[in-house]
Structure formats: C-alpha cells, structure tokens
Specification:
Length: about 260
C-alpha cells in the first residue's frame, strides 16, 4: 500500500467570529495516499478551502489529528512539501510572469539554467509560452490563473494543493487544462488535492472524490473511482462515468440545505 501523504483523524476546526463559533470542519477522517488525485466537492461553506488551508498550515486545527507526509503541517511547510494554487491568481504585479514563476525556485536556490528550463516547461503546459516578459496586469484573469498554476507546477513538490484553479476559465480552456493536469499527474506521480464545484471535473480528474456538506463542515461520502487511469475527454459520455457522477450528485443533494 502507498504511503499516507495526508492523514486526518477526527479533525475539527472552529472559527470564532462575532456571530459565534463557525464549525468549518467537524470530525473529518480522511487518508490521502501517495499518487492519489483527490477532489473535494460540496456546496459553498462546507470547509473545502479550510481543509486545504489546514494541510498548508495556513489555519490551525481546533482538535483531532492531521499529518502531511507524516509530519505536522508546520514541519511540512518548512520542508516545502507542497505547491499551492489559490482560487484567485496571487501574482506579484511588479514581477513579470517568468519572474513570478521563478520566485519559489529562487527561494529554493535552483540553479539559473534549471529555473529557466522549469519555467519554460511550466508555461508550455498552461499554454502561456511567449508571455514570459508580460506583467500580470497585461494578461486576462484566466491567463493569470494559468500563470499561477505554472508557478505551482514549476516548483516540484510531491503534493499539489489546488483550490478551484479552473473555476474562472472558459470551458474549452478548462477541458484542455484538465487533460494536461491528468497527464502531468500520471507522468510525475504527484499527489493532488483539488477543490472544485464541478461534478464532471471531479469525476474526470479523480481517483478519489470526497463529498462534503456544510454546517458543520463534514465528509459525507468518499468515492473511489472505478475509471481507468487513461482518460480521454470522451470518457465523460460513458455509463461508468455517469454512474459515479450520479453518486456524487446524490451525496451533494443529501447534504444540501435549501434554506439560504
Ligand atoms: N477566517 C475565517 N473566519 C471565520 N469564518 C471563516 C473563515 N474562513 C472561513 N470561514 C467560514 O467557515 C466555513 C467554511 O469556509 P470555507 O471557505 O472553507 O468553505 P468552502 O467549502 O471552501 O466554500 P467555497 O466553495 O465558497 O470556497 C464557512 O462558513 C465560512 O464562512
């Protein structure tokens, strides 16, 4: 069996707010294994982003256990165990695209030639070759997000945390990036934790789909995908795909509140 990359046991996180406590995560138990592609899906406010942020040591658990590569999130952060792609592109406006991508590589002291190679590969992967010298504000929102994905890819961490990275992109670009991400994942044996609101995206990409529900944020279903590793886009029309999508939809419906 593959090693555990993220392991959560009875994990709880409660935010204290002026309106009282918000139970963002309640008794979450989950094991992400090396090489897994795990999608987190659920309605707004069910704690998907919070879970990623706990892994990345950007939030502290209230109780329970969480390890990342067998370490505390704090030690994992110091060991630079992961790359993080945020919901909104977080690029420095005073740096060109290539300099933005270079930043983590500079911090990690990659040799200049290696930096250049990685930047070129990452830009190619997200279809941004030729935009190296542009500044973020010269690109569309979608292109900026692709650049921030390139930054997380260039930095060669085994674990990629992706918070709705393709949510703002048009569907054709999104399809392309989904395919490219799968290829990259297959080639590199990375472990990916991926937040999405899209059922087809979750089913297409994942080896494991974690369905969550809010108030309090909890895991209501964990689906191990039966789809083959090789996934042309056409697989989305197959009976097997639709069966898994149906189960995800049922899980979402069961945990959904219509009272908002
Ligand atoms: N810093 C914070 N302080 C207080 N409450 C917070 C904070 N961050 C998130 N929350 C609350 O915790 C709950 C979970 O939020 P979270 O962002 O993790 O959900 P999500 O599933 O990622 O939502 P979305 O799909 O909208 O991004 C929500 O009720 C949210 O309002």
């Amino acid at each position: 069996m593959q090693a555990s990359v993220v392991s959560a046991k009875d994990l709880c996180l409660t935010y204290q707010t002026n309106d009282g406590p918000v139970h963002a995560l309640s008794d979450v138990n989950l094991d992400v294994r090396k090489g897994d592609f795990v999608s987190f899906i659920g309605p707004s406010g069910c704690g998907k982003t919070t879970f990623l942020r706990v892994i990345a040591d950007l939030e502290k658990k209230t109780s329970g256990e969480i390890t990342v590569n067998g370490m505390t999130p704090d030690d994992a952060r110091k060991a630079r165990a992961y790359g993080y792609v945020f919901q909104a592109p977080a690029l420095y406006p005073w740096r060109t695209i290539e300099k933005n991508i270079a930043l983590p590589l500079e911090i990690m002291s990659y040799a200049a030639a290696d930096q250049k190679k990685r930047i070129a590969e990452a830009l190619d992967l997200v279809n941004l070759s030729g935009f190296e010298k542009k500044f973020p504000w010269q690109l569309s929102g979608g292109m900026q997000q692709r650049a921030s994905i390139a930054r997380a890819l260039a930095f060669d961490a085994d674990l990629l945390l992706m918070d709705e990275p393709f949510g703002a992109l048009d569907e054709i670009v999104r399809d392309h990036l989904n395919e490219e991400l799968l290829k990259l994942w297959a080639r590199t044996n990375k472990t990916i934790c991926f937040v999405t609101h899209s059922i087809p995206e979750a089913v297409y990409l994942s080896t494991k789909i974690v369905v969550m529900s809010p108030r309090p944020g909890r895991v209501t279903d964990v689906i191990d995908s039966t789809l083959p590793a090789e996934r042309p886009l056409g697989i989305r029309e197959t009976a097997e795909f639709l069966k898994i999508a149906h189960r995800v939809r049922e899980g979402l419906r069961a945990g959904h509140s219509y009272e908002e």
